[in-house]
Amino acid sequence: MNFSVPSDFVHQAHLQAQHASRGASPNPAVGCIITSPTGQILGQGHTQKVGGPHAEVMALRDAAAHGHSVEGATAYVTLEPCSHHGRTGPCCDALIAAGIGKVVASLADPNPLVAGNGFARLRAAGVVVEVGPGAEEARELNIGFFSRMVRKTPWVRMKIAASLDGKTALADGTSQWITSEAARTDGHAWRARASAVLTGIGTVLEDDPRLDVRLVDTPRQPHLVIVDSQLQTPLDARLFIAGRAVFIYAAAPNDAKKSELEAHGATVIHLPGRAPGTENKVDLAAMLQDLGRREINELHVEAGHKLNGSLIREGLVDEFLVYLAPKFIGQGLDMANLGPLSALSQAVALEFKSVDLLPPDLRILARVPGR
Ligand code: AOF
Ligand code: ZN
């Protein structure tokens, strides 16, 4: 038997949610712990892959599998239990039917189909509802889902690996490897929780990267998105991996190449800029809208200085994940092409969220204020 205090249960529900963070997309990663009035854990669970059961149903099944009654029990959940019929039935109804007496939820579900209806339905059935404990962690874990529900666009996180003097490659383009293994493995963990990885055609042509998750375990590969204005992605590029969805955004129409790429399993989307003079480039803001419609929650950007610069200049990046190696490179490639500023007041202002030593490198998470 496992006895704990309530704040521990909130934390344990969050740990359950973390188990779902690489597999739940496009659903939020949610965890649930069901406890008896005496503080015994009766069941636990987390969101399964899309179309599968939600956290609450998994926890109820876990309790039943152990022969535990949950009559009058408390359910700790990291998100408001759903009230709608989506791909699965409403968790509220399952909790009520099982006789749960109290629900402690970290956050309301921003999904307009739920948004408070879950809490209302539970209260109407006489279930005590408490909202708030663990809200910060729950939101961070599902920052992409919240972004897509509220803004209709993904949360954009740009990953950069550089030397301490801010260079991502030698002047001749050599970049393998500036950071060390711990940083590279950590980078894969961030890829794994993203719905999709984004890169540009420059990186595809220069590095022929796979941009998949290899250094950590994952139940699914994130989709790959390529900004490829002139449709130059080679058909034999290593990024074509069996079973992974590839979305290519183009500006120039090229029906022959489009057909070839689609025969390789890619989806080609024609999205040229609408303002005069931008017709040759992909409309990046419109691309994010389109990715939101395609249920992309977190978008993990690993691109070169050109695409990085365009995304930053257009204000489309929410957060930077920067790995810094303790070395100077001297002349080399910049993290992002931003061009010269005429005043410091024009700088892209950020706030540091965290700084960690991943020996021998540093990991910095910096966020646009207010996002
Ligand atoms: C919960 N518990 O573990 C999760 C929830 O299509 P469906 O039926 O899978 O529903 C998806 C929606 O359910 C998703 O958009 C979000 O609002 C909510 N996610 N709800 O009660 C869970 N993952
Ligand atoms: Zn649910």
TrEMBL record:
Associated pathway: Cofactor biosynthesis; riboflavin biosynthesis; 5-amino-6-(D-ribitylamino)uracil from GTP: step 2/4; Cofactor biosynthesis; riboflavin biosynthesis; 5-amino-6-(D-ribitylamino)uracil from GTP: step 3/4
Pfam families: dCMP_cyt_deam_1, RibD_C
Chemical reaction(s) catalysed: 2,5-diamino-6-hydroxy-4-(5-phosphoribosylamino)-pyrimidine + H2O + H(+) = 5-amino-6-(5-phospho-D-ribosylamino)uracil + NH4(+); 5-amino-6-(5-phospho-D-ribitylamino)uracil + NADP(+) = 5-amino-6-(5-phospho-D-ribosylamino)uracil + NADPH + H(+)
Binding-site positions, Zn(2+): 54, 82, 91
Keywords, ordered alphabetically: Hydrolase, Metal-binding, Multifunctional enzyme, NADP, Oxidoreductase, Riboflavin biosynthesis, Zinc
Record-listed substrate binding positions: 175, 191, 203, 211, 214, 302
Cofactors demanded by this protein: Zn(2+)
Domain CMP/dCMP-type deaminase: 4-130
Positions annotated to bind NADP(+): 161, 177, 207, 229, 304-310
GO molecular function, one term: zinc ion binding
EC number of the protein: 3.5.4.26, 1.1.1.193
Physiological role: Converts 2,5-diamino-6-(ribosylamino)-4(3h)-pyrimidinone 5'-phosphate into 5-amino-6-(ribosylamino)-2,4(1h,3h)-pyrimidinedione 5'-phosphate.
Protein name: Riboflavin biosynthesis protein RibD
